[in-house]
Amino acid sequence: MSALATHMPRTLIADDQPDVLAALRLLLKGAGFQTEAADSPNAVLAAIKKRQFDVVLIDLNYARDTTSGEEGLDLISRIQGEDDSLPIVVMTAWGTVDLAVEAMRRGVCDFVQKPWENSHLLQVLRAQVEQGRARRQLKQRASQRRTTRLTLRRELAEARLIQERLMATTDVDLENVVLSSTWRVAGTVGGDYLAAFPIGPDRAALCIADVAGKGLPAALLMSNMQAALKSAASENVTPGELCTQLNKLLNANLPLNRFITCFYGLLDLRRRLLQFTNAGHTPALLVRGSGRVVRLNTGGCVLGAFADSTYQQGEIDLYSGDRLVLFTDGVTEVRNKSGEEFGEPRLRQLLTREHHRAAADLQQMVMARVNEFCAGHFEDDAALMVLEVK
After folding, report:
1. What is the SS3 assignment for 113?
2. Bigger pLDDT: 268 or 186?
3. Same domain, yes or no, for 131 and 187?
4. What is the pTM of this model?
Protein backbone atom coordinates (compact mmCIF):
# COMPACT_ATOMS: atom_id res chain seq x y z
CA MET A 1 0.00 0.00 0.00
CA SER A 2 1.43 3.41 -1.02
CA ALA A 3 1.78 6.35 1.32
CA LEU A 4 -0.92 8.15 -0.67
CA ALA A 5 -3.43 5.48 0.31
CA THR A 6 -2.78 5.95 4.00
CA HIS A 7 -2.67 9.77 4.07
CA MET A 8 -4.53 12.21 1.81
CA PRO A 9 -1.94 14.53 0.27
CA ARG A 10 -2.30 18.15 1.34
CA THR A 11 -1.93 20.27 -1.79
CA LEU A 12 -1.56 24.05 -2.08
CA ILE A 13 -2.80 25.45 -5.41
CA ALA A 14 -1.76 28.97 -6.42
CA ASP A 15 -3.28 30.86 -9.36
CA ASP A 16 -4.71 34.34 -9.85
CA GLN A 17 -7.65 33.06 -11.90
CA PRO A 18 -10.63 31.93 -9.75
CA ASP A 19 -12.01 29.57 -12.42
CA VAL A 20 -8.67 27.79 -12.71
CA LEU A 21 -8.49 27.40 -8.93
CA ALA A 22 -12.01 26.01 -8.82
CA ALA A 23 -11.34 23.52 -11.61
CA LEU A 24 -8.13 22.30 -10.06
CA ARG A 25 -9.63 21.94 -6.59
CA LEU A 26 -12.54 19.93 -8.02
CA LEU A 27 -10.17 17.65 -9.95
CA LEU A 28 -7.85 17.04 -7.02
CA LYS A 29 -10.60 16.54 -4.46
CA GLY A 30 -12.12 13.83 -6.64
CA ALA A 31 -8.69 12.17 -6.85
CA GLY A 32 -8.25 12.02 -3.05
CA PHE A 33 -6.22 15.19 -2.47
CA GLN A 34 -6.82 17.73 0.27
CA THR A 35 -6.57 21.18 -1.26
CA GLU A 36 -6.06 24.77 -0.23
CA ALA A 37 -6.10 27.71 -2.60
CA ALA A 38 -4.03 30.89 -2.79
CA ASP A 39 -4.38 33.71 -5.33
CA SER A 40 -1.11 35.58 -4.75
CA PRO A 41 2.52 34.94 -3.81
CA ASN A 42 1.98 36.43 -0.36
CA ALA A 43 -0.98 34.13 0.25
CA VAL A 44 1.17 31.15 -0.80
CA LEU A 45 3.92 32.04 1.65
CA ALA A 46 1.44 32.69 4.46
CA ALA A 47 -0.14 29.27 3.94
CA ILE A 48 3.24 27.50 3.90
CA LYS A 49 4.25 29.19 7.15
CA LYS A 50 0.99 28.10 8.75
CA ARG A 51 0.98 24.39 7.88
CA GLN A 52 2.90 21.68 6.05
CA PHE A 53 1.94 20.65 2.51
CA ASP A 54 2.86 17.57 0.52
CA VAL A 55 3.06 19.46 -2.79
CA VAL A 56 2.48 22.95 -4.12
CA LEU A 57 1.07 23.60 -7.59
CA ILE A 58 1.71 27.18 -8.69
CA ASP A 59 1.24 29.43 -11.68
CA LEU A 60 4.20 31.55 -12.76
CA ASN A 61 2.14 34.64 -13.60
CA TYR A 62 0.10 36.85 -11.28
CA ALA A 63 -1.48 40.27 -11.46
CA ARG A 64 1.82 42.13 -11.32
CA ASP A 65 3.45 40.31 -14.21
CA THR A 66 1.60 38.38 -16.92
CA THR A 67 4.35 37.75 -19.45
CA SER A 68 7.85 37.13 -18.06
CA GLY A 69 7.20 34.71 -15.20
CA GLU A 70 9.57 36.64 -12.96
CA GLU A 71 7.02 36.93 -10.16
CA GLY A 72 6.56 33.17 -10.20
CA LEU A 73 10.30 32.55 -10.30
CA ASP A 74 10.75 34.81 -7.30
CA LEU A 75 7.98 32.89 -5.49
CA ILE A 76 9.80 29.61 -6.17
CA SER A 77 12.93 30.94 -4.47
CA ARG A 78 10.93 32.18 -1.51
CA ILE A 79 9.14 28.82 -1.12
CA GLN A 80 12.51 27.08 -1.16
CA GLY A 81 13.67 29.43 1.57
CA GLU A 82 10.72 28.40 3.75
CA ASP A 83 10.80 24.64 3.05
CA ASP A 84 13.42 23.21 0.72
CA SER A 85 11.88 19.73 0.86
CA LEU A 86 8.45 20.85 -0.42
CA PRO A 87 7.88 19.64 -4.02
CA ILE A 88 6.96 22.47 -6.41
CA VAL A 89 5.07 21.82 -9.64
CA VAL A 90 4.70 24.78 -12.00
CA MET A 91 1.77 25.42 -14.36
CA THR A 92 1.64 28.12 -17.01
CA ALA A 93 -0.39 28.75 -20.14
CA TRP A 94 2.74 29.47 -22.07
CA GLY A 95 6.35 28.64 -21.63
CA THR A 96 9.77 28.61 -23.11
CA VAL A 97 12.68 26.27 -22.69
CA ASP A 98 14.68 29.01 -20.92
CA LEU A 99 11.89 29.66 -18.44
CA ALA A 100 11.50 25.98 -17.68
CA VAL A 101 15.24 25.60 -17.14
CA GLU A 102 15.34 28.60 -14.81
CA ALA A 103 12.35 27.31 -12.86
CA MET A 104 14.00 23.91 -12.46
CA ARG A 105 17.25 25.59 -11.38
CA ARG A 106 15.42 27.38 -8.60
CA GLY A 107 13.95 24.17 -7.25
CA VAL A 108 10.90 23.23 -9.33
CA CYS A 109 10.36 19.48 -9.49
CA ASP A 110 8.16 19.34 -12.60
CA PHE A 111 6.57 21.58 -15.23
CA VAL A 112 2.99 21.30 -16.65
CA GLN A 113 1.53 23.54 -19.36
CA LYS A 114 -2.04 24.79 -19.52
CA PRO A 115 -4.43 23.56 -20.62
CA TRP A 116 -3.53 20.49 -18.64
CA GLU A 117 -4.44 16.91 -19.26
CA ASN A 118 -6.09 15.60 -16.08
CA SER A 119 -4.51 12.17 -15.89
CA HIS A 120 -1.05 13.54 -16.63
CA LEU A 121 -1.37 16.26 -13.98
CA LEU A 122 -2.54 13.76 -11.36
CA GLN A 123 0.31 11.42 -12.27
CA VAL A 124 2.84 14.25 -11.85
CA LEU A 125 1.39 15.33 -8.50
CA ARG A 126 1.26 11.80 -7.08
CA ALA A 127 4.86 11.18 -8.10
CA GLN A 128 6.01 14.42 -6.48
CA VAL A 129 4.09 13.71 -3.28
CA GLU A 130 5.81 10.33 -2.96
CA GLN A 131 9.23 11.79 -3.68
CA GLY A 132 8.66 14.74 -1.35
CA ARG A 133 7.62 12.50 1.52
CA ALA A 134 10.65 10.34 0.94
CA ARG A 135 12.92 13.41 1.01
CA ARG A 136 11.33 14.64 4.21
CA GLN A 137 11.78 11.27 5.86
CA LEU A 138 15.45 11.24 4.88
CA LYS A 139 15.83 14.80 6.13
CA GLN A 140 14.13 13.93 9.41
CA ARG A 141 16.32 10.86 9.89
CA ALA A 142 19.42 12.90 9.14
CA SER A 143 18.30 15.49 11.69
CA GLN A 144 17.69 12.77 14.26
CA ARG A 145 21.14 11.33 13.59
CA ARG A 146 22.71 14.77 14.04
CA THR A 147 20.81 15.25 17.29
CA THR A 148 21.89 11.81 18.48
CA ARG A 149 25.51 12.53 17.59
CA LEU A 150 25.45 15.88 19.38
CA THR A 151 23.86 14.30 22.45
CA LEU A 152 26.43 11.50 22.46
CA ARG A 153 29.25 14.00 22.02
CA ARG A 154 28.02 16.03 25.00
CA GLU A 155 27.59 12.92 27.12
CA LEU A 156 31.06 11.65 26.22
CA ALA A 157 32.56 15.04 27.04
CA GLU A 158 30.85 14.94 30.43
CA ALA A 159 32.01 11.35 30.94
CA ARG A 160 35.57 12.45 30.21
CA LEU A 161 35.37 15.19 32.84
CA ILE A 162 34.08 12.64 35.34
CA GLN A 163 36.96 10.30 34.52
CA GLU A 164 39.47 13.10 34.90
CA ARG A 165 38.08 13.96 38.34
CA LEU A 166 38.14 10.31 39.39
CA MET A 167 41.82 10.08 38.50
CA ALA A 168 43.03 13.43 39.78
CA THR A 169 46.20 13.00 41.84
CA THR A 170 47.51 16.57 41.72
CA ASP A 171 45.77 17.52 44.97
CA VAL A 172 47.15 14.54 46.92
CA ASP A 173 49.59 15.69 49.61
CA LEU A 174 51.68 12.80 50.96
CA GLU A 175 54.53 12.98 53.42
CA ASN A 176 58.02 12.35 52.04
CA VAL A 177 56.85 11.80 48.44
CA VAL A 178 55.86 13.94 45.42
CA LEU A 179 53.47 12.66 42.76
CA SER A 180 52.96 13.60 39.15
CA SER A 181 50.64 11.80 36.73
CA THR A 182 49.12 12.08 33.28
CA TRP A 183 46.40 10.27 31.40
CA ARG A 184 45.74 10.20 27.68
CA VAL A 185 42.92 8.33 25.95
CA ALA A 186 42.81 7.06 22.38
CA GLY A 187 39.26 8.40 22.06
CA THR A 188 37.13 10.59 24.33
CA VAL A 189 36.99 8.22 27.30
CA GLY A 190 39.10 5.19 28.06
CA GLY A 191 39.81 2.18 30.19
CA ASP A 192 43.01 3.24 31.96
CA TYR A 193 42.91 4.19 35.62
CA LEU A 194 45.39 5.64 38.06
CA ALA A 195 44.94 6.76 41.66
CA ALA A 196 46.84 7.82 44.75
CA PHE A 197 45.04 8.52 48.00
CA PRO A 198 45.84 8.46 51.72
CA ILE A 199 44.72 5.54 53.90
CA GLY A 200 45.06 6.45 57.52
CA PRO A 201 47.60 8.91 58.91
CA ASP A 202 50.79 7.22 57.67
CA ARG A 203 49.81 5.19 54.61
CA ALA A 204 48.77 5.76 51.03
CA ALA A 205 47.33 3.60 48.26
CA LEU A 206 48.82 3.65 44.78
CA CYS A 207 47.06 2.04 41.86
CA ILE A 208 47.24 1.86 38.10
CA ALA A 209 44.95 -0.38 36.06
CA ASP A 210 43.94 -1.12 32.48
CA VAL A 211 40.70 -2.63 31.15
CA ALA A 212 40.98 -4.90 28.11
CA GLY A 213 39.49 -2.77 25.32
CA LYS A 214 38.99 0.93 24.71
CA GLY A 215 36.29 3.55 24.58
CA LEU A 216 32.99 3.76 26.42
CA PRO A 217 32.66 0.05 27.35
CA ALA A 218 36.13 0.09 28.90
CA ALA A 219 35.35 3.36 30.69
CA LEU A 220 32.19 1.90 32.23
CA LEU A 221 34.06 -1.16 33.48
CA MET A 222 36.83 1.00 34.87
CA SER A 223 34.33 3.11 36.82
CA ASN A 224 33.16 -0.10 38.50
CA MET A 225 36.77 -1.02 39.23
CA GLN A 226 37.40 2.41 40.74
CA ALA A 227 34.36 2.18 43.02
CA ALA A 228 35.28 -1.32 44.15
CA LEU A 229 38.88 -0.30 44.85
CA LYS A 230 37.91 2.75 46.91
CA SER A 231 35.45 0.62 48.89
CA ALA A 232 37.89 -2.22 49.61
CA ALA A 233 41.12 -0.29 50.20
CA SER A 234 42.18 -0.04 53.83
CA GLU A 235 45.40 0.15 55.81
CA ASN A 236 44.45 -3.24 57.28
CA VAL A 237 43.97 -4.91 53.87
CA THR A 238 47.19 -6.02 52.20
CA PRO A 239 47.66 -5.64 48.43
CA GLY A 240 47.37 -9.41 47.96
CA GLU A 241 44.12 -9.53 49.90
CA LEU A 242 42.72 -6.56 48.08
CA CYS A 243 43.47 -8.02 44.64
CA THR A 244 41.85 -11.30 45.69
CA GLN A 245 38.69 -9.43 46.71
CA LEU A 246 38.62 -7.39 43.51
CA ASN A 247 39.17 -10.49 41.40
CA LYS A 248 36.17 -12.32 42.87
CA LEU A 249 33.95 -9.28 42.46
CA LEU A 250 35.04 -8.60 38.90
CA ASN A 251 34.83 -12.25 37.88
CA ALA A 252 31.17 -12.24 38.88
CA ASN A 253 30.39 -9.01 37.03
CA LEU A 254 32.65 -8.59 34.01
CA PRO A 255 31.40 -9.69 30.58
CA LEU A 256 32.98 -12.76 29.00
CA ASN A 257 36.49 -12.18 27.63
CA ARG A 258 36.92 -8.98 29.63
CA PHE A 259 39.56 -8.54 32.33
CA ILE A 260 41.53 -5.85 34.10
CA THR A 261 45.24 -5.63 34.75
CA CYS A 262 46.21 -3.84 37.94
CA PHE A 263 49.19 -2.81 40.01
CA TYR A 264 48.25 -1.93 43.59
CA GLY A 265 50.66 -0.70 46.21
CA LEU A 266 50.31 0.15 49.90
CA LEU A 267 52.92 2.72 50.86
CA ASP A 268 54.01 3.18 54.46
CA LEU A 269 55.04 6.83 54.37
CA ARG A 270 56.80 6.86 57.73
CA ARG A 271 58.83 3.69 57.16
CA ARG A 272 59.18 4.29 53.40
CA LEU A 273 58.11 0.74 52.73
CA LEU A 274 56.08 -0.32 49.70
CA GLN A 275 53.97 -3.47 49.70
CA PHE A 276 52.61 -4.29 46.27
CA THR A 277 50.79 -6.81 44.10
CA ASN A 278 50.94 -6.90 40.34
CA ALA A 279 47.80 -8.49 38.85
CA GLY A 280 48.93 -9.16 35.29
CA HIS A 281 49.90 -5.53 34.75
CA THR A 282 52.97 -4.07 33.11
CA PRO A 283 55.53 -4.14 35.96
CA ALA A 284 56.11 -0.90 37.79
CA LEU A 285 59.69 0.34 37.56
CA LEU A 286 61.55 1.46 40.68
CA VAL A 287 64.52 3.61 39.67
CA ARG A 288 67.10 3.82 42.44
CA GLY A 289 69.12 6.93 43.12
CA SER A 290 72.03 5.19 41.40
CA GLY A 291 69.98 4.76 38.20
CA ARG A 292 69.48 1.01 38.64
CA VAL A 293 65.98 -0.11 37.63
CA VAL A 294 64.01 -2.76 39.56
CA ARG A 295 60.91 -4.35 37.98
CA LEU A 296 58.05 -4.92 40.45
CA ASN A 297 56.24 -7.94 39.03
CA THR A 298 55.29 -10.07 42.05
CA GLY A 299 51.56 -10.85 42.11
CA GLY A 300 49.36 -13.03 39.96
CA CYS A 301 47.13 -13.15 36.88
CA VAL A 302 44.78 -10.50 35.57
CA LEU A 303 41.66 -9.56 37.56
CA GLY A 304 38.30 -11.04 36.63
CA ALA A 305 39.50 -13.96 34.52
CA PHE A 306 39.35 -16.77 37.12
CA ALA A 307 37.28 -16.74 40.29
CA ASP A 308 39.78 -18.72 42.38
CA SER A 309 42.92 -16.73 41.53
CA THR A 310 45.19 -15.87 44.44
CA TYR A 311 47.80 -13.15 44.62
CA GLN A 312 51.23 -12.91 46.17
CA GLN A 313 52.69 -9.62 47.25
CA GLY A 314 56.13 -8.11 47.27
CA GLU A 315 57.76 -5.69 49.65
CA ILE A 316 60.53 -3.22 48.99
CA ASP A 317 62.18 -0.36 50.85
CA LEU A 318 62.25 3.09 49.28
CA TYR A 319 65.07 5.58 49.73
CA SER A 320 65.53 9.26 49.18
CA GLY A 321 66.19 9.92 45.50
CA ASP A 322 64.21 6.90 44.27
CA ARG A 323 61.62 7.27 41.51
CA LEU A 324 58.68 4.86 41.27
CA VAL A 325 57.15 4.78 37.79
CA LEU A 326 53.72 3.22 37.15
CA PHE A 327 52.42 3.06 33.60
CA THR A 328 50.00 1.23 31.30
CA ASP A 329 51.01 -0.61 28.15
CA GLY A 330 49.73 2.30 26.07
CA VAL A 331 52.99 4.05 26.97
CA THR A 332 55.37 1.33 25.83
CA GLU A 333 53.36 -0.20 22.97
CA VAL A 334 53.05 2.92 20.83
CA ARG A 335 54.64 2.49 17.40
CA ASN A 336 56.58 4.77 15.10
CA LYS A 337 55.96 5.06 11.37
CA SER A 338 58.15 1.99 10.79
CA GLY A 339 56.00 -0.15 13.09
CA GLU A 340 58.62 -0.33 15.84
CA GLU A 341 57.37 -0.28 19.44
CA PHE A 342 58.67 2.24 21.95
CA GLY A 343 59.12 -0.71 24.31
CA GLU A 344 60.07 -1.15 27.94
CA PRO A 345 63.84 -1.34 27.28
CA ARG A 346 63.77 2.14 25.73
CA LEU A 347 61.73 3.42 28.68
CA ARG A 348 64.18 1.90 31.18
CA GLN A 349 67.13 3.48 29.39
CA LEU A 350 65.37 6.82 29.45
CA LEU A 351 64.60 6.55 33.17
CA THR A 352 68.16 5.51 33.99
CA ARG A 353 69.55 8.51 32.14
CA GLU A 354 67.03 11.05 33.46
CA HIS A 355 66.20 9.67 36.93
CA HIS A 356 67.57 12.75 38.69
CA ARG A 357 64.66 14.88 37.41
CA ALA A 358 61.83 15.92 39.74
CA ALA A 359 58.59 13.95 39.49
CA ALA A 360 56.69 16.42 37.31
CA ASP A 361 59.66 17.06 35.05
CA LEU A 362 60.36 13.35 34.62
CA GLN A 363 56.70 12.55 33.87
CA GLN A 364 56.45 15.31 31.29
CA MET A 365 59.73 14.37 29.67
CA VAL A 366 58.75 10.69 29.34
CA MET A 367 55.40 11.49 27.76
CA ALA A 368 57.02 14.02 25.44
CA ARG A 369 59.47 11.37 24.19
CA VAL A 370 56.68 8.82 23.76
CA ASN A 371 54.54 11.35 21.90
CA GLU A 372 57.46 12.28 19.66
CA PHE A 373 58.20 8.61 18.96
CA CYS A 374 54.66 7.86 17.73
CA ALA A 375 54.09 11.30 16.17
CA GLY A 376 51.12 11.83 18.47
CA HIS A 377 49.31 8.73 17.22
CA PHE A 378 48.19 6.76 20.28
CA GLU A 379 46.29 3.60 19.33
CA ASP A 380 45.63 2.75 22.98
CA ASP A 381 44.95 4.66 26.18
CA ALA A 382 48.08 5.67 28.07
CA ALA A 383 48.57 6.52 31.74
CA LEU A 384 51.74 7.35 33.66
CA MET A 385 52.45 8.13 37.32
CA VAL A 386 55.82 9.13 38.75
CA LEU A 387 56.49 9.11 42.50
CA GLU A 388 59.56 10.91 43.79
CA VAL A 389 60.88 9.91 47.22
CA LYS A 390 62.17 12.86 49.21
Report:
1. strand
2. 268
3. no
4. 0.69
